[in-house]
Amino acid sequence: MVKTKKIKALDGFSQAADTAVVSRGIAIQTGLTGNPNFPNSPVDLAVLKTNIDNLSALVSESLDGSKKVIAQKNKQRETVIESLRLLARYVEVACKNDMAIFQTSGFQAASTTKNSTAPLSEKIRKIEHSANSGQVIVRINTVRGASSYELRYGPMVNGAPPATWTNIGVAKVKAPVVVTGLTPTTTYAFQARALGKDGYTDWSDTLTFICT
Q1: Burial letters for 84-104: b for 16+ Cβ neighbours within 10 Å, e otherwise?
Q2: Is the dihedral of CA 30, 31, 35, 38 positive or negative?
Q3: The domain 124-210: what is its CATH number?
Q4: Which of 73, 87, 141, 162 fits a disulfide with 58 by CB distance 3.0 to 4.6 angstroms?
Q5: Residues 181, 159: Cα–Cα separation, whole Å
Q6: Per-domain residue ranges for the chain?
Q7: Rounded to two decimals, what is the model's pTM?
């Protein structure tokens, strides 16, 4: 007997950019509103729409860097994400493992195939948002024979590379590097290199990431 894998809703809201949370929230709220396949929503969808609209407005207002507005935006973001996660669990059960029904909800189905995540570059494996505003988490790839590593970053200026870089020495890469003191809504460039017996390698390709 072949066991059918249950449909799981794609989550990842906590790592998504603010704009992505808004757009995915709108798709889900629209898909569930008036949907006969999901008549008993555990979340008031009209309230969810209001919360998403408020988040969208706060995302725009936070672009001026106001700490007060950014704090309000982050709080509103968590409110929306909490509702979306609750809806995800409800949809997974209510769809009765029927993909056609599931897809009417506005949620995306998580892949049932386990794939290893390809690194972003030859030296940097992953860059992600921290739970705290103004911080970014960077995971550096292990380079065989390297005794230590160096990470550097700087704000992009009108799409151009940073005029100045800030360098961080990294002894080991088993633990991620938490970069702090960044400006929310600013796009930063990141590069990494390794120190081997013949000296430092070249800097990796530049990766850009928007801090929240």
Answers
A1: beebbebbbebbeeeeebbeb
A2: negative
A3: 2.60.40.10
A4: 73
A5: 21
A6: 13-103, 124-210
A7: 0.54
Query: Could you give the CA distance from residue 142 to residue 47 in angstroms, rounded to a whole number?
Result: 47
3-class secondary structure per residue, the chain: CCCCCCCCECCCHHHCCHHHHHHHHHHHHHHHCCCCCCCCCCCCHHHHHHHHHHHHHHHHHHHHCCHHHHHHHHHHHHHHHHHHHHHHHHHHHHCCCCHHHHHCCCCCECCCCCCCCCCCCCCEEEEEECCCCCCEEEEECCCCCCCEEEEEEEECECCECCCCCEEEEECCCCCCEEECCCCCCCEEEEEEEEEECCEECCCCCCEEEECC
Residue 143 to residues 9, 15, 172, 194, 201, Cα–Cα distance (Å): 35, 26, 11, 7, 10
pLDDT digits (tens, 9 = 90+) for 123-156: 898 898 887 888 999 999 998 889 999 999 999 8
